[in-house]
Amino acid sequence: MTPLTSVDGRRLALSNLEKVLYPADGFTKGEVLHYYATVADALLPHLRDRAVSFLRYPDGAAGQVFFTKNVPPGTPEWVATAEVARAEGPARMVLVQDLASLMWAANLVAEFHTHQWTVVRPALADRLVLDLDPGPPAGVAECCRVALWLRERLAADGIEAHVKTSGAKGLHLLAAVRDASPGRVSAYAKRLAVAAEAALPGLVVHRMNRGLRPGKVFVDWSQNAARKTTAAPYTLRARPEATVSTPVSWEEVAGAAEGQGDLSFRAGEVVRRVAEHGDLLAPLFETGRAGRVP
């Protein structure tokens, strides 16, 4: 029988702690749980009040990987849930609101993906996201050059951009926005992607056609649609190594654009970064800094 662990007064069965989930790092499930407990103060604000989809990989990235959007069977009754409208009919999804529910969810071994709106105000987006996905041989340096252009373009519209790694091979630009429907934000994001392609025609593509991507950066604007989700800040990814979707500074982006660093961070490095810098995405929660979508 799996022993129970007390987390903020909740009793959790945290299982298979010695199981290696990241063979390249020898990173175990117990280390995954310790990572999430350590960065919880930075992570939880990015999950709170957002319906969470799980990309599960219980045997590591080399094993079965599958998405779970509905509340998983066996979910404790104390884990918060919310009904979310979907094209195929409403669904009930998990909310990760506190440390206990975070540790329960981490025990499932999953990436955390969230919408750009909260269940409190589902008709209004409070985030804009642009996913920069490089087509080989393009890489992180090319993504950084595109990110810097988009930062200036957003600033011209009074919108402050922040950046994190995807935890895979690209970057995510994030901005706090207000009083805009997901459709309006999505249309604006598409205009930005089109403008980036016009300004950087040898470097950017805004269309999803994979045949157009080699050597260029795909600016994926579509993740602003109400039904879409994006990997949350600080989530571990289902990769051979224990890489994390990591907030980074614009100074780091500028350096990587010149070939100084690959902006790939593993769990242990992220723990140290949070201890030293706090959450670099904390400005997203400052209401006065949210921009208006034109």
TrEMBL record:
GO MF entries: ligase activity
CDD domains xref list: MtLigD_Pol_like
Pfam families assigned: LigD_Prim-Pol
Gene3D superfamilies per record: DNA primase, PRIM domain
Keywords on record: Ligase
Record-annotated DNA ligase D polymerase domain positions: 28-280
Domain of life: Bacteria
The keyword Ligase is assigned to this record: yes
PANTHER family linked: BIFUNCTIONAL NON-HOMOLOGOUS END JOINING PROTEIN LIGD (PTHR42705)
Name under which the protein is recorded: ATP-dependent DNA ligase
Lineage, uppermost ranks: Bacteria, Bacillati, Actinomycetota, Actinomycetes, Kitasatosporales
